[in-house]
């Protein structure tokens, strides 16, 4: 029975099943995506909420050094992109990381991964919808249209702001001296209509944009592609304006100190920076709608990552060069704020308008990805058949698209942005770790290596992984950390959970060093696995606890339904 949890679908079986599905009239999807379209989808997903919202708080935490964190995270994504490309060229199916895990790591791991992709796509889209709402409401305010505060934010933020503001006012502080966020939250909670004593505070614009995007995704990939391409071109033009105009106002002295809060301040922004790169893998979910997925998907992933990393680094340096990083704390629209600081309200208005465009394209790509993963899981029997239903006219996964709209739209009414970002980031990194691990397992069989049109450059990791572990431990000891006292922290102290997480990371690093020597593993997937796992350790024990509860819920569903209904079981 234990082995049945890890039953796998062979590459040949997956491809033959796909050919059988496409041979049935009405089951095939419309193939019209090329390299440019896929690259634009990657750019749309990556350049979203982070560059217009989260980059402000990230810069406040880490200073100009956050630009290097973007580079480091991009390297982790690049290692991962090689692994995604390897799988996409071998198994050109819409299931993305879920399908890749099914071929290499087994069914229960694939299910857990598919369950966590829900965090990456649907839950992260909640964050994008919330950010879109903020910029859209600000844009309307600039045009003289006021939307009541209780219709523009979540209940939890409003309640917290009301409590904190009430306490501040009681202690003698003036309302006008409080931050904008506190004033808006207080007003929203106080002015909201009450239903059975409960204050109705909900983010209505976030719901409406989700409905509109869901409809666009529902009616066809061609319509979605054309809309996305136009939005991405506009987005890139605005970002070039931001960098080009902003460069003239940079004060180099603002880059000193480069990391004002030290390395700990930089690492505090890991969740926000990782969130910035969420979605580059969404390209792989459109494999069944690509003209040549085995050739085009690997190219598009690399192009999108390179373009977006350059843009993130440039924008971060310009932002921190104009506004001292400590002044960016709590700023939800940092790019618009930056131009207001230098007396360019016109450019600030353009940025606010472009943010609406940019976030719309990100929403579009995320809403495309999730239904196609559900569709593939349904074909394997792990979800009900309705999820794999293809619309006879539009050639899209109709029921899955509608369910994704519901799953994004309803939480967007009430969810808190920061908590959604953190949970989504750790789920995404987990998917990246498993994809890198899956390539290592898959390539243990030389026959599998022959079936891929994309080859990861092979570098023997035999000595690199072990030597880097010894070097890392030496540097930690040299930095003044007492390893004995640190190990005692595993059993006592407030940070014992964080110590335990980091200890687990070093154990896995040691195991990978052993297998690198005995199995002569490829270095790039090993680096991808370790770097993504390290980024996960920086998420904090609270996010790990929530993540474990999420995985546990997925395991319960698997044994309650998916294990019995799986086509491999039948």
Automatic annotation (TrEMBL):
A Pfam family annotated for this UniProt entry: AA_permease_2
Q: Which Gene3D superfamilies match?
A: Amino acid/polyamine transporter I
Gene Ontology annotations for the cellular component aspect, listed alphabetically: membrane
Which locations, inside or outside the cell, does it occupy?
Membrane
Q: Which GO-annotated molecular functions does the record name?
A: amino acid transmembrane transporter activity
Mind telling me which InterPro entries this protein's record contains? AA/rel_permease1
Is the keyword Nucleotidyltransferase in the record? no
Q: How does it sit in the membrane?
A: Multi-pass membrane protein
Tell me the keywords, alphabetical order.
Answer: Membrane, Transmembrane, Transmembrane helix, Transport
Report the transmembrane regions from the record: 38-59, 65-85, 195-218, 230-250, 262-280, 301-323, 343-369, 399-417, 423-442, 463-480, 500-517, 524-541, 547-563
Q: What is this protein called?
A: Amino acid permease
Q: Which organism is the protein's source?
A: Aquirufa antheringensis
């Amino acid at each position: 029975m234990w082995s049945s949890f890890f039953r796998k679908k062979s590459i040949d079986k997956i491809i033959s099943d796909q050919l059988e599905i496409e041979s049935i009239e009405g089951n095939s999807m419309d193939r019209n995506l090329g390299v440019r379209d896929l690259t634009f989808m990657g750019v749309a997903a990556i350049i979203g909420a982070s560059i217009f919202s989260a980059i402000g708080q990230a810069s406040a935490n880490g200073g100009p050094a956050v630009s290097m964190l973007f580079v480091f995270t991009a390297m982790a994504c690049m290692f991962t992109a090689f692994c995604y490309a390897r799988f996409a060229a071998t198994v050109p199916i819409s299931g993305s990381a879920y399908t890749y895990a099914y071929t290499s790591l087994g069914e229960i791991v694939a299910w857990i991964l598919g369950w966590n992709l829900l965090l990456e796509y649907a839950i992260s889209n909640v964050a994008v919808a919330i950010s879109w709402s903020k910029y859209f409401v600000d844009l309307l305010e600039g045009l003289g249209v006021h939307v009541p505060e209780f219709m523009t934010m979540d209940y939890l933020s409003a309640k917290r702001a009301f409590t904190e503001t009430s306490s501040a006012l009681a202690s003698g502080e003036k309302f006008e001296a409080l931050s904008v966020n506190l004033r808006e939250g207080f007003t929203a909670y106080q002015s909201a209509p009450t239903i059975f004593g409960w204050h109705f505070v909900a983010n209505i614009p976030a719901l409406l944009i989700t409905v509109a995007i869901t409809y666009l995704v529902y009616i066809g990939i061609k319509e979605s592609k054309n809309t996305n391409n136009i939005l991405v071109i506009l987005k890139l033009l605005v970002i070039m304006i931001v960098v080009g105009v902003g460069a003239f106002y940079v004060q180099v002295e603002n880059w000193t100190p480069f990391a004002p809060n030290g390395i700990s301040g930089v690492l505090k922004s890991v969740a926000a920076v990782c969130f910035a790169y969420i979605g580059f893998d969404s390209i792989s979910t459109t494999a069944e709608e690509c003209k040549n997925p085995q050739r085009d998907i690997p190219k598009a992933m690399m192009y999108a990552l390179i373009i977006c990393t350059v843009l993130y680094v440039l924008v971060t340096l310009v932002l921190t060069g104009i506004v001292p990083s400590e002044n960016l704390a709590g700023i939800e629209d940092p790019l618009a704020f930056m131009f207001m600081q230098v007396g360019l309200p016109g450019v600030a208005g353009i940025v606010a308008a472009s943010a609406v465009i940019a976030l719309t394209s990100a929403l579009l790509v995320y809403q495309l990805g999730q239904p196609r993963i559900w569709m593939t899981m349904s074909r394997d029997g792990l979800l009900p058949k309705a999820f794999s239903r293809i619309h006879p006219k539009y050639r899209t996964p109709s029921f899955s698209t509608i369910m994704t709209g519901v799953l994004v739209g309803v939480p967007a009414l009430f969810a808190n942005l920061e908590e959604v970002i953190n949970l989504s980031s750790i789920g995404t990194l987990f998917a990246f770790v498993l994809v890198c691990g899956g390539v290592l397992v898959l390539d243990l069989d030389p026959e599998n290596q022959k079936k891929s049109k994309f080859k990861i450059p092979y570098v023997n990791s035999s000595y690199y992984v072990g030597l880097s572990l010894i070097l890392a431990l030496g540097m930690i000891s040299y930095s003044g950390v007492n390893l004995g006292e640190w190990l005692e922290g595993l059993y006592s102290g407030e940070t014992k959970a964080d110590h335990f997480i980091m200890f687990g990371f070093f154990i896995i690093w040691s195991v990978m060093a052993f297998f690198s020597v005995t199995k002569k593993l490829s270095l790039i997937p090993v680096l991808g696995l370790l770097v993504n796992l390290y980024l996960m350790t920086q998420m904090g024990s609270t996010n790990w606890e929530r993540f474990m509860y999420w995985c546990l819920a997925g395991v319960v569903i698997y044994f309650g339904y998916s294990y019995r209904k799986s086509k491999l079981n039948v």
